[in-house]
Amino acid sequence: MDDIQTAVSVDELSFWGKHRFSLLIVLAVLVASSLVLTSIALYYSSGAAQLDLSRPGYKAVRAQAVTSDSDFQNYSSTGAINQSTISEFKSLYARQAQKTEAVDAFGGDPLNPNSLGVSDVSDQSSF
Amino acid sequence: MKTFARLLVVCLTLAVILSGILLLDVSAQNATMTDQQIELIRTNCVSAKNTLNQLHMSDALLRVNMGQMYESMSTKLMERFNGRVANNNFNNTNLVAVTTSYGLMLDTFRSDYITYEEQLSSAIAVDCSKQPVAFYDAISSARTERNNVHADVLKLNQYIDQYQSALNQFEKDYQATSSGAKQ
What we know:
The complex is a heterodimer.
Chain A lengths: L1 H11 L2 H4 L1 H26 L2 H4 L7 H4 L20 H19 L11 H4 L11
Chain B lengths: L1 H30 L3 H9 L1 H43 L5 H33 L6 H51 L1
């Protein structure tokens, strides 16, 4: 009697009822894929990709990245303002400014077609 | 059926016009380069690619290190001193104005670097032995973008100097105020 009742109840299940486990897996995969795609899009659009030296191809320069800027002192945002504190800040600021400005970052012209060897000298003006 | 035939004719006409425009564009690009130069690009293709890859790596390192320094100038020095001045009820308008401009320029620097890096990556991705003209154009665009990043760096340095001037002015105002109060 029980066997007959069980068989009837299984037959009454709808298509989605019968495949609910498969449906669960498909939905889980879809949600995971959409989250992965969103995170990859954010990774590239935010500029994090450009700063990520752990990417393949950056192994040679990875060790040269400054991981600690401990020589860059934090100036306290609390406390009194007097001639002594102003002078102290001025000297701290001047030191760091000099260090920052000392590097001519992205200067030079390494992408000049002549230095890359992809142009003859006469073509220099057209580039 | 007639409508379908007309639609087909219209589509074919559009396709012919579009391909004509594209062909004209390609021939115009070729016209700016001589055969000798195209051959030169093909010959030096491998060495140029190696140079680009090295530049790609060294610029990424420079971006990380310099970005950190520029960020620290703002967060560890300028903003903190501005806050301290404000907490002591002194006028910090000039200092804040320069800090704000510096912050905006730092944002421009970041976005310009992203554009440059994308352009350089696309230049590296071009097969220079098969597409020498496209390779040359991609390098040209990357060069322009790199110059923009360099211009941003120069402006950031200018703002650093301007903050120093604003600081000197603040010191003078402070000395004038304190000597006036003593008298």
